[in-house]
Structure formats: structure tokens, C-alpha cells
Write a structure and sequence with these properties.
The complex is a heterodimer of chains A (109) and B (863).
Chain A (H helix, E strand, L loop, with lengths): L7 H13 L5 H12 L5 H14 L2 E5 L12 E5 L1 H20 L3 H4 L1
Antiparallel strand pairs in A: 1-2
Chain B lengths: L10 H10 L2 H22 L1 H15 L16 H18 L1 H30 L10 E9 L4 E4 L6 H8 L3 E8 L5 E5 L2 E5 L1 E4 L3 H4 L4 E3 L11 E5 H8 L9 E4 L3 E9 L12 E4 H7 L12 E6 L5 H16 L5 E6 H4 L4 E3 L2 E4 L1 H29 L1 H13 L4 H38 L9 H27 L3 H5 L7 H37 L9 E5 L8 H9 L4 E7 L8 E2 L2 E2 L11 E6 L3 H5 L3 E4 L12 E5 H7 L8 E4 L3 E9 L14 E5 L6 E6 L4 H15 L7 E3 H7 L2 H35 L1 H9 L4 H35 L10 H27 L3 H5 L3
Helix pairs in contact in B: 2-3, 4-14, 5-12, 5-14, 5-23, 12-15, 12-17, 12-23, 14-15, 17-23, 17-25, 17-26, 18-21, 23-26, 25-26
The chains are: A mainly alpha (109), B alpha+beta (863).
Amino acid sequence: MSKHHLGEFEEIVILTVAILHGKAYGIAIIEEIEKRLNRRVSIGSLQTVLKRLETKGYLSSELGEATKVRGGKRKRFFTVTAYGLKILEETKNQRLKLWESIPNTVFER
Amino acid sequence: MQHKKNCNPPRWLILFFSWFCHPDHLEDLEGDLRERYDQRHRDVGKRKADWLFFLDVFSLFRPAFIRPIKSNHPINIFDMWKHNLIMTLRNFKRSKTSFLINLLSLSSGLACAILIYLWVVDELKVDSFHEKGDRLYQVMELWEYPDRTDMITATQGPLAKALSDNIPEIEHALAIVDWIEDYQLTVEDKNTQAKGFYVGPEFFDVLSYDLLKGSKDNVFEDVNNVVLSKKTAEQLFGSIENAVGQSVEVNHQALFRVGGIVENPPSNSTYQFDFLIHFEKFREYFSWVNSWTNHGPATLVTLNEGADHKVVTEKINNFYKTTIDKQKVKYKLLSFPDQYLYSRYENGEIVGGRIEYVRLFSFIGLLIIVIACINFMNMATARASRHAKSIGVKKTIGARRRVIISQYLTESLLLTALSTTLAIFFVRWVLPQFNLLIGKEISFQLSLSFILVLLGITLATGLLAGSYPALYLSSFKPVDVLKGDIKASWREFFVRRGLVIFQFTMTIVLMIGVLTIYRQIQFVQSKNLGYDKNQVIHFNLNGELPKQYNTLLTEAERNPEIKAVSRGQQLINHGSSTIEVAWDGHNPEEMIAFHNFNVDYGFLQTLGIKLLEGRHFSKKFGTEQGKVIFNEKAIEIMGMEDPIGKQVTIWKDFQFEIVGIAEDFHFRSLHTAIEPVFFIIYPENAQEVFVKLEKGKEQEAIQKLESLTERLDPNYIFDFNYLDEEYAQLYAAEQRVESLARYFAGFALFISCLGLFGLVIFTADRRKKEIGIRKILGATSMSIVYLFSKEFTRLVLISIVIGSPIAYFLSKNWLEKFTYKIDLSLWYFLGVGLVVLLIALLTISSQALKSAYVNPKDYLREE
């Protein structure tokens, strides 16, 4: 069941892509992560993860329309695939199950 | 963008990024980078943004984003080359003229280069076969005069032994007497003329000549041993098998025993000998060699491994100074194998020698190849308009520049390979004549190294010829050429003209150079030398002849074909000189070498040497011993006024009275100035008979002399030399250079004109319509020819203007080597220029006339 294991950063990236919903491209993702998690992300490590997730089939990407900003370069927009969503779901469920299994006394102190 | 001026990230980082980044990600990642940079530029300023940009770029420099080394669109190599080959062959077929012109010029250029290569390699191989070559040195003597230092190979006889006894670093020291001309070797009834050396017993330790019989330790164990060359042994004994131990009579005087047989010296050996005799015998026969004040034998030494020749030189000089010190002499060690190439000395330093010619010809070879390559370049770029469309189409459907370049390189390489093949055939065909010209025996062997060299030459030539057209043609922009917008760019036009000018400039320089050498040689050959060298033969007295000389003289003079007979010493390159001449007011510290000629009565008259003052030697005055005749130069050096009758002391103890002054005459090559000379009567030492023959009756006279000598001594071999031929021999090196260079200059001119021819054909083709229209409007054929010639003639004229000063400078420089030389007159330059111009004009007008006489309707009918 859990042979597709998501790393922590991978999970964050997929979630952010899902949050941005259709507007997820490199810089937007970085800014979103920085805003929500207050965590610095280098462009290199983000792109590596994006690429890895895409080859695993969790994400798909396509180039957008050319605009005049960015030196005329197109953006690459990422979306979460159905498979990716399923994995997210699974991960979430696993976590939830773990949460539920914590005895109540642990938090009561 | 609302913010101010420069919001671009550092250019080099962008370049670096687009260089390494995988093409799939290049666009969006660069966009991301730029977007971030813009943002930061606004927020934190340029400097910080630049720095962060730098970090971003390098954070992306990781395997996931680095482009693969191999292109992700593999080229179908096989099909590409197949296509290239087909295109090439098609091009050859379609433009036969330019193909032929290219083939002809490249193959003749390559043939010249291959011949030069063969010659250069042969020159470099001379004396390279000695195994101890890297520590084999020749001991040179340095004579320091007030105004100059002479360096000579003649050393004192005892030097070799003294050196090997006293200098520990010297492994072997060898004395060699190499100037003995011809000795007669006799075995029973067999007789042969041979050239021999007197050598020290270390000969085979020092030099690497193969002994066929005997070992290097015992061939000279007895001083009466002689070592024969294979050739001589076969002449005397039929084979080398039973020769060892047999007796050989040398010059009908002494018996020697054959101690060993040596392989004939290879043709790349400077020492050429037929037999070797122990140096001890020379000391026995010629006691002068035992003195430290006489100089003659060459001394060669091998040093111990690792010994420094400079240190050894120092030691030799120290040893001489402290132990011997008879005369003011210094020594210097020069590498023996290098001697052949580096044998021109000035003031005790090597300043050149044959190596200059080796370099010169290597350069000429290169030049001719370049000239041939230029033809290819010009033809290819001139035809560019024809190829433009095909290049445009190819590029449009995705051919990269590299593919187009490879196509044109295929063309040039294939053409060069073809040309090399042709050139090889040509070289094989002319090699015998070439050998004759350069006096060598080069054989044509396709050894591995030679094949590699040929491949190298082919590749280099092909790339040289093809690179410019390939780069130029592949740079066409598809949009421009497909729109039909090929401008004959002024740059291309300029380059082509420049290349033509270069070709002709070099050709003109070569031709003027050749003319200079030719004129100089003619000048020295015909210069009044102060004696009459024509119709004079000379031969050596040996065997019984010295005793029979008087009979020979009277019998010979009886013949009407013989004008005069006398004897003396070798005239051309006369060797013996002395510094022991003393006169009133002579400063003994000042060393001046006087050439001494030991002669018999009538010697000066036979050679036509004229007297300025005084009288010739004559029997009328009783004994002439103690009388001397000096030349002008000697008198000038001694500073004598009214010298006739004055006394001089020669060889310390002998008094001589001056009876005459001879006009100066040249007995050495005109490289050197006239030197002081004196003549004395000394028949015993006058071994060379000089005979002046009647003009036109030389053959009869020679026959009579031959039968006369045979009657006087049946064993004598009548071997004579013409004086004028010997004199010409002094300039053999220059003569060879001149005749070689003459051919190469001819080739250069030929190739250059071929190129010009090709360009004219091309222009004529391109301007067909123009010519047609002009003719219809009434232009005469002459004006059409003029139209063509104007353009190209101007190029040739410019070449003449550029080439002449270069040629002037180079020729002047070469002439510096001669003491007596021609003046470079204006007509050399004008003459060569005119000849080149005429030939070029002929080339041009042959084609121009053709197109001028074509019926214009043929030109205009198309379309």
C-alpha cells in the first residue's frame, strides 16, 4: 500500500501546487511556500523536486502563453494529476490514522 | 516595466545558464530566473539581485538540468556522409572546369610539397646514423685575429692523443686525415683509384660504420693494416670473402695487409671513403703532423655519458694553455652530426649553413600549397551563388551549420585526396630527374611513416582549402538566400582579391629571388678570376710519374694541341697556408695566414696569372730557390713600398728574395675575399700537373696525354679534372638551390595563373548577359577584352608593387653572403613584373576573347 512514499518536501510541494490550482509555476510555488510556511526554498531544489514528481506521475506540466514580462519566456504551469491526488489522499489518511492512534493522555499533560 | 533603466541580469550568467541548461527546461527556467531577478531588482537593488541571481543559477547547476553531452537529435552519420559524397561528385561533374583547375593546382602544389619534403628529410638524415651522435663532437680551432675569429676543422696532429690522455670526460678521441684525394691500390695485376682516410684506431669506436669482416678491436692492431670498403674489396679481390689477410700495394710504394672490410659508407654520410689506413702511417710519411704548430687532421671526440661539452671545452682550453701553448689557439666542440647542416661560421659562432636552405625550401613548399589552396577557396566562394539556394533549403528543413560545413569539407578533402594520389604518381615519375638536380639518391618508398605524412599533408591541405569556403557558405541566412537576396558581399569580393594578390605577390618574390641567384651565379662563373680557367686540366702525379716528370713534360709540350704544361698544387680550394712569414716591420703578434703554392717553372704562365711587377720564375737565372713571388694582396698587407728585391723570412729559417708581384686572383669561392699568397719553386712538393689545351682540340690532347702517361707508367690511371668545372663545383650548393627554386617558382606561377583562369571563366559566365547586351549595343571585341583584363591586371599590378620591395629585401640579404656580388638593378623587378603581367594577360585574354567573340544571341536567348 505505501510503496509510494512521499517525502516531506515533496508533500509540501504537491500541496502547494494543489493550493495554487492552475497558477502553479516555479516562482509562484516558492512564494507560496515562503508565505505559508515561512521557509526559504532555493529555485534549484524546488525545480529538482518538481521534475522528480513529474516523472513519478504525480504532477503534470505545460507551458503557458508567452507574455512580455520575464523576457518573453513562457511559464511552466504544474497541476496535480489524478494519481497525485490519490497519493495525497493516501498520505493524509495515513497521517490521520497515526494521529488517531495517539492515546489522549499524551496531550493532556 | 515601470522601474528604471537596467534591469537585466548579468549577461555572462545568462550565457552560462543557457549553455549548460537542458533545452527542455531552458525557457521556463530562464523565465523564472528573470522574473525573480526583476522582482528583487525592484525590492533590494541591483547588486544584491545580481548576487542572488548568481546563487539561483548555480543552484540549478545540477545533474537534473544539465544538458546531456550528446545531442538529443542524433544525426544519421552514414546517410549524411553518403549524401555529402553524392553532392561532391555531382558538383565535380557539373562544374568540370573548376574541378579540373582545382585538381591540377592542388596536385601540382602537393607534388612540389612532397618533393621538398623528401629532400628535407634526406638533408636532416645526413650523419644521423652514428650511434653515439648525441655525444659525438668535432674539435674546432678558433683563430682570433684582430678583426675577426676564424673557426676551422684542421687541428694539430698530436691533439687527439693528448685529449684522450688528459681529459677524463673524453671517452675516445680520433684523428682523421680526410683530404687525401686519390691513391692507387694494386693487387697483382688489378689496379684501382680510391679515396682513403688516415684514421686513428678508435675509428670504429667513435663512428658507426659497419664492419663486415674483422672486429673493431683488431682491424687496426697492426699499423700496416688497411681496411677496405666493400666496393673496393670487390674490385680488387672479386669478393669480400677471402680478402682479409691479403696484401695491397698503396700508390706503388708500400704494402699493406687487409685487416677488415667495412660496408660502403651510406649516402647520408659526409665521410665518403674507399679505404682506411692507420694514422700512425700518416705520421710516419708526413712528419710535419707531429708538431703542435702545424694544423691538418680533423679531431673527433666522444664524451662520456652525461658529460657537458661546455665543461669539456673549458678543460681542453685549460689543458692547452697550461701544457702546450705553442700558438694562440682556442678550441670549441661542435656536435658532429649537426655539422652538415650548420657549417657556416662567423667569428667563431655558427650562423647557418645548409639549414638555411632547408628552412627556405620548407617555407617555399608551404607557400606553394597555400597558393594552391587559395585557388580552391576562390573557386568555391565564387561559385557560392550556385550553391546558395541548396544551402537555404537545407537549412530551412533543419540542417545545422555543422552539417553544411561537413559537406564542403568533404568536397575539399575528397579533392585533396585525389590530388595527393595524382601528386604521388607525378613525384614517382620525376624523382630520377629531381635526384639528378639535387645530386642525391632519394628513393620512393611508401613506408608507414611516409604514408602517415602523406595523410597528414592531405588532411591539412584539405582543411586549409575547405575551411574558409565551408564557413563562408554555411553562414548564409536561409531567409536571405531563398528570397534571392544574395549580395555579392563586398567583404567576400575583397577577400578574393586579397587572396589573388597574395598568390601573385609570392610568385613574384620567388621569381625575383630565383633571378637574383641565377644572375649571381652567372656573375661568379664569368667573373675575371685573375687567371684563365678555361681549357685547363690537371691531374695528380703518383706512382712512377714523379720520377718521369721531365720526360712527360718534354713529350707533352711537343704536341701542338698542348699549349703549356707545369706543375704545382691544387688551385681550387687550396689548403696549405702558413703564418710564418716575416718581413721588415712585421709584428710577430699579428697572425696572418699566407697561402703557399709550391710550383715548378711555368706554373703562373700556364694558368695565365699576370705579373704586375718584376719577373716570372725562369731557369735563365740559374737556381730560383730562395726566390718568391707574392700577390698584390700580400704586398698590401705587408705594406711594402717598391718590394722587388726585398728579403722576407719564411718558415723562420729561410730567406727569400721577392722577384715578382702577381695580380690578385680568386682561387676560392667568391664568398671569401682575396687572401695573401706566395709562390716558391719547390718541384718536389708540386704534385699536380696543370695542362693548358688548345681550344677545340681538348679531346685529342687528352687522348695523347693518356697514352703518354700509360707509356711512362702502365699502372697509372689517368684521372683528370677540368679547372673550370671544378670552379663551378664551388657553387654547387647555390646552383642546386637556383635550379630547384626555378622549378618551384615556375609551379607557383602556373598555379597562380590557373586560379586566375578559373576566376576569369567564372566572371565571364556571370557577366554573360552584360556582354551580350554590350555587344548588341555595339561594343567591339577589344573593348570586351579590355573590360575583363582591367580588373585582373590591376590585381597583378598591385602584386608587383607589393612583391618587389619584399623581393628586394630578401635578395639583398642573400647576396650579403658573397664578398663579390651583383647589384640589384631595376630591370630585375621590371622584367619579372612584365613577364608575370604578360603571362597573366595571356591567361585572362584567352578566356576573354572567347566570350568576346560569342554571338550575343547565344547569351541572351535564355529566358
